[in-house]
Amino acid sequence: MLILGVESSCDETGIALYDSEAGLLSHALHSQVAMHAEYGGVVPELASRDHIRRVVPLLREALGRAGKHFDDIDAVAYTRGPGLAGALLVGCAFAEALALAIAKPTIPVHHLEGHLLSPLLSSDPPTFPFVALLVSGGHTQLMKVTGVGEYELLGETLDDAAGEAFDKSAKLLGLPYPGGALLSKLAETGTPGIHELPRPMLHSGDLSFSFSGLKTAVLTLVREQGENLSEAFKADAARAFQEAIVEVLVKKSLKAMKQTGLKQLVVAGGVGANKQLRATLNDEAKRKRFRVYYPELEFCTDNGAMIALAGCLRLQAGTPSKPAGEFSVLPRWPLMEMSATR
Hints:
The chain is α/β, with parallel strands linked by helices. The chain has helices spanning 33-37, 44-66, 85-101, 111-117, 162-172, 179-187, 212-225, 231-260, 275-288, 304-316, and strands at 2-7, 12-19, 23-31, 75-81, 106-110, 130-136, 139-147, 150-156, 264-268, 291-293. The longest helix has 30 residues, at 231-260.
């Protein structure tokens, strides 16, 4: 069974081909980071227009790399939501039109489910059940995952997500877009212990998160420093911020592992690429004798491979595909609703 995956939820256009027997055959990706950097953030209208320009060339590229043709495709999976409405519409309309033209069914996929399942693309994937730490864009959640579409929410952020806190704090430090990745890189050169920042909800007794207060603490630190921020100050502040957010994510994850009694932890989403987070979790995994899994770095950001995989797994789990032609997008779509769609 060969699944074509289409991703267009924000500022990456992704196309991939996933075979249920052979695994990932090919994927092609275009990032709009350079285009949006001029504006300091994603411009939705520009994002939508760029998806239109990129999607057909990327499809040709993915088919060529895999040595496949339209007739080989068994179903077309695409991101239905959440995301930017216009960007989602481009991917949905393209996927539905293509599926209609080649007389194949479609599989609408939840973007976050794609991230959640992305570690299954690796050569050493986890098995169900596992605890998942999902840290993608505006989402920070801990879940117990017992199968495809079988998700139990253990805790989530009450305000800013980890990724949002990274981006907003980077902006406060004067870093250009995309700030979160640059803050992480800058933190590697900072000196530990120069600044002390709060660990929000670290001792709350539950598995909820809150990162807006941490962002406010960075703002206070910047204001106390004055207008001219030295490079040393930025690096030290970045280090303090990253240490705070990593400690919260790690300790909450460990609490979730203990609470569920499971021995596998999956970390997915953009923040899952953070080196300090990975190093700390790996150390804890050795100490406490559990295993931690991450997506390959190329699959931490948005991509078509995770959508093709999620579509394939959905079909294998018994979720019916639908005839091509009718569709809608869901810019806001809680992942927990997917548990009811099996």
